[in-house]
Every structure is written in structure tokens, then in C-alpha cells.
Input
Amino acid sequence: MNTLIARENNGQRTETSKRFWPSQEVQAPARRAGLPSDAREWVDPCTLTFWVWDEVEAAGAVPTASGLQRREPATATMLTLLTFAYANNVLDSGEIHDACKSDPAFRFLCGGSPPFPEEITSFRRRHRLELQGLLARVFARLISRGNGAVNLTVCPCLWQEAQERLDIARQLDDGD
Output
């Protein structure tokens, strides 16, 4: 399991995610956009679930050689689950797997069938850019509290925040 350690450095607060050994420290995402580390600090899990579903549904058509095609249901489910997890700073694939067994919101999102950590890692690698875009749009909804659109080109820090969380997820999985 991870523990978060807050440190003051030149007046700025940084958080470090520390695994079992001190040499496996990973910097948590900076809070440039003023986002909480766990989105559930600002909105309830039900609202967050609907926001994630809306974003996955809005990005529902994928380009193919024969035109636009609807995404496979299993892909949409995994995108929804991982976007929800990363928005809540649950980054390690093993922790996502465990949350799918113990947390009602996670269990609901995976339909009661938790993906294996290896499946999560593989999926994240194949769909990284899509996950990053979905996560940035969910962050935009958090910033606006669901009351309006935040232009991601005006606020690139949301895109960077999403990128950093995915980088940490990769580093945590590589350390296992």
C-alpha cells in the first residue's frame, strides 16, 4: 500500500507517494490547478461516476478504416473505471483491483468483475492518450463544479495533471 508524505520545500507543499522501500518514492502530481488529490473530496462518488460516464460516452465513437464505429462495451467499461480511479488518485493497478472488491463505487463500475492488475496495466498502455483526455475533461468538470465548460487549451495544467497521474501509475506498476 502507498502512504502519502507531505513536505514543505521553499514554501511549496509537495506530496510523495512512498511504497515499501524508501528508494521507491514517486512524486505525486503538483496541484497547479488547485485540484484535490481525490476528486471525492469535492463531489460525491455518484456525481463523479456520471461525469466520467458522460465523458466516455461523448468520446464514444472511434475512427476505423471504414469510418466511425462505436466503442466495444468492455473498452468503455475499462475507460470509465480507470478514469474514475485516476481522478480519485487510486493509481496502482493492484490497488484498483482491490478497490473493485471493497469499494461500492469501484465494484459498480467494473460490474462486479474486477480486472486483474495486468489487464489494467496493459489497457492503460494501449489507451493512454484517451485516458489522459478523459481525465483532463473530468478535471475540468471538477474545476467548474459541473457548471460549465473549462477550455483545456486555456487551462493546459489540467492536461498536464492527467499526464502526471498516468506517469505515476506507470511508475508504480513498473515497480511491482
The longest helix spans residues 156-175. The longest strand covers residues 3-9.
